[in-house]
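Below is a filled-in request sheet from our internal design queue. Each sheet records the structural input a requester submitted and the sequence that came back. We keep these sheets so that new team members can see what a complete request looks like end to end.

REQUESTER: design group, bay 2
PRIORITY: normal
MODE: inverse folding
CHAIN LENGTH: 506
BACKBONE (tokenized):
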């Protein structure tokens, strides 16, 4: 690969410098043993899955217009990527290739007169933009999308260590910087094309992402990544020599290939690493939204009561989603690095304090979904051995998964007792209608079609409780519902728990 000298930055460098959290997460030990071929296979798998996911979103968010109006701009290289099913959409496509520069040379440097379209509709459906053959950007595959619904950029290239890598971003500043980088290339090769393209792009300014939209992209990406893996490449192919092989037919077929990667470890690692990157992508805008919301809430005395109520709901929704993403990230981290699970520090903590901190939050979650939540707790709660931060995350995730999987009017009973040298925490849900409809999404997640909810699957949740020194057992009881039993080691004051004597409910 021709590396950038700083004067001609690649889009990989733009995203690498501006979007560090979204870069693939690799441990030093893994980088030492992972071959370039495996890295290339993983990056290409993520790339083609992202193409399919973005196309799904375009078709869902951009209904075919009844007139000739343009719905967005797509700038890509080395060829158009989307399949014929997206043709009804009115998208103007610009393709950056070094072959376009060769065509320019054949015209004996006689540049055509500048043609300034009077409107974006005047632009051709597909336009070629030239890249210098020595331009490092010519060795990358990228796609920048600007519409009135969302903005997005993704790139398949090589990082600073020459490792094949896939990166993406919804950040408007990063997307703007990517456009500026592409504009600088046109300034070098064919400045006559800048003005009409710049005028067109001005109608689709980069947008701040809706976190629900980013979550939907995440689900689609994981679905395509899991069910449509790209076959292992046989040799390294330079992108600027494969334009003909990356036409729309190649792309349409790419997401349908069903040849799996045979090694289980190589098949699971890309998904786990991508999931880690996606949790960062989702948490970043949510954290910003929550921060701005809390700034407004500090001025509640100047706000209408209804506005305050809505801001509090926004704060609560953001907090729950951030916690959910943190738990998924932590689970992915432990699945990719088992040593992190084995070395988790366990200390004596007060179970009473755990419940005091979390029961109000669990009650709010249940109340919003019209779920009855009953607690049968002993008069004196014992000390247990666990990791405070991890225990809060796992219990909250499990409780949330239960409340979200029950239909309105459902009931959950939580009972605490002791069993020998262990604490016994039982959660019984009386309706498993929605729980039984859960579908697996890859190695870590479960998807609920009726609600669109994502949650950790039971195997991963069991691994988390094992890391906490405990155990999770799940039983399906006919006519009684689903019973989850959690065992945790008691601390120094074990044996203080007695039979449950009071009920706390909403």
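RETURNED SEQUENCE:
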């Amino acid at each position: 690969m021709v590396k950038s000298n700083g004067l001609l930055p690649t889009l990989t460098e733009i995203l690498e410098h501006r979007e560090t959290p979204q870069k693939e997460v690799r441990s030093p030990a893994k980088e030492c043993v992972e071959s370039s071929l495996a890295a290339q296979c993983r990056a290409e798998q993520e790339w083609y899955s992202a193409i399919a996911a973005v196309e799904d979103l375009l078709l869902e968010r951009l209904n075919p217009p009844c007139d000739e109006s343009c719905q967005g701009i797509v700038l890509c290289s080395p060829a158009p990527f989307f399949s014929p099913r997206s043709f009804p959409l009115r998208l103007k496509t610009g393709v950056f290739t070094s072959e376009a520069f060769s065509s320019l040379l054949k015209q004996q440097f006689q540049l055509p007169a500048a043609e300034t379209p009077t409107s974006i509709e005047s632009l051709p459906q597909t336009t070629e933009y030239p890249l210098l053959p020595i331009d490092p950007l010519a060795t990358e595959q990228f796609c920048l999308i600007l519409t009135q619904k969302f903005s997005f950029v993704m790139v398949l290239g090589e990082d600073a260590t020459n490792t094949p890598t896939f990166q993406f971003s919804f950040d408007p500043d990063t997307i703007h910087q990517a456009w500026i980088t592409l504009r600088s290339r046109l300034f070098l090769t064919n400045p006559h094309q800048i003005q009409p393209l710049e005028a067109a792009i001005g109608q689709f300014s980069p947008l701040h992402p809706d976190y629900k939209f980013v979550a939907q992209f995440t689900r689609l990406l994981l679905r395509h990544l899991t069910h449509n893996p790209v076959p292992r490449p046989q040799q390294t192919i330079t992108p600027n020599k494969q334009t003909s092989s990356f036409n729309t037919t190649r792309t349409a077929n790419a997401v349908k290939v069903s040849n799996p990667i045979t090694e289980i470890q190589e098949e699971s690692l890309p998904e786990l690493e991508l999931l880690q990157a996606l949790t960062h992508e989702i948490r970043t805008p949510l954290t910003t939204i929550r921060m701005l919301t809390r700034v407004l809430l500090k001025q509640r005395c100047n706000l209408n009561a209804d506005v305050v109520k809505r801001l509090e709901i926004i704060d609560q929704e953001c907090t729950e989603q951030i916690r959910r993403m943190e738990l998924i990230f932590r689970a992915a981290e432990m699945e990719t690095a088992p040593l992190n699970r084995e070395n988790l520090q366990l200390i004596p903590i007060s179970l009473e304090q755990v419940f005091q901190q979390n029961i109000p939050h669990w009650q709010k979650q249940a109340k919003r979904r019209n779920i009855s939540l009953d607690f049968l707790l002993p008069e004196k709660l014992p000390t247990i051995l666990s990791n405070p931060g991890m225990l809060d995350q796992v219990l909250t995730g499990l409780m949330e998964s239960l409340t979200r999987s029950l239909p309105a009017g459902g009931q959950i009973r939580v009972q605490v007792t002791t069993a020998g040298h262990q604490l016994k925490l039982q959660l019984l849900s009386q309706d498993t209608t929605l729980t039984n409809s859960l579908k697996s999404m890859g190695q870590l997640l479960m998807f609920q079609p009726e609600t669109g909810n994502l949650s950790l699957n039971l195997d991963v949740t069991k691994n988390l409780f094992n890391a906490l020194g405990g155990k999770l057992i799940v039983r399906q009881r006919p006519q009684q519902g689903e019973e989850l039993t959690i065992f945790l080691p008691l601390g120094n004051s074990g044996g203080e728990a007695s039979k449950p004597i009071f009920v706390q409910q909403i």
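SHEET NOTES:
- The chain is about 40% helix and 20% strand.
- Confidence is low (pLDDT under 50) at residues 20-34, 108-116, 230-267, 493-506.
FILED BY: M.R.
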